[in-house]
Amino acid sequence: MKLPRSAPGWTVAVFGAMALLLGAVGLVAPDVLLGLLGFEQLSPAERAPGDHTRTFMAASSMASLNMGVYYLLAAATDWQPFFSFSAVFRLLTFTVFTLLVVFDVAPLRFLGVAFWEGLGGLVTGAAIWWDRRRPAGAVTDGVR
């Protein structure tokens, strides 16, 4: 796979790699991911009938793995419109995840996920801004 060619490309690549990795962890060891997210981990025997936590974990982990691939592809092809789109929607995700904690739908530890999303959106947005301010064709340490 080609390396990113821009600062926002690198931010998207880092997020994509993490999304892919965490998606794989969620598929292979969902309790590990639940613990990282701050959720209580119950054995299958402790779960109430109709509790579909493991189904939801598999579905969201697969979505995360797929999203990681999409982000890595966008970074490798230097798809600038995707970088802007991702920054905006990561900030929206920060807002929604924070509200889930505020309204006691998610545990306080879930704010870590919200802040990761928000920070990622801000860093990608800042990288886009920085790249746009540089003269066309400028190269700094292999990043244009």
Judged by helices, strands and strand pairing, the structural class is mainly alpha
Distance between the termini: 18 Å
Average residue-wise pLDDT? 91
Silhouette: elongated
Give a quick account of the main beta sheet: strands, pairing sense, barrel closure.
none
Number of helix segments? 5
**Oligomer status:** single chain
Transmembrane segments: 12-34, 55-76, 82-103, 110-130
Protein name: DUF4345 domain-containing protein
Organism: Micromonospora pattaloongensis
Keywords: Membrane, Transmembrane, Transmembrane helix
What would your notes on this structure say?
With 144 residues, this protein is mainly alpha-helical. It has one domain. It has five helices and no strands. α1 packs antiparallel against α3 and α1 runs antiparallel to α5. It is elongated, with a radius of gyration of 17 Å. The mean pLDDT is 91.
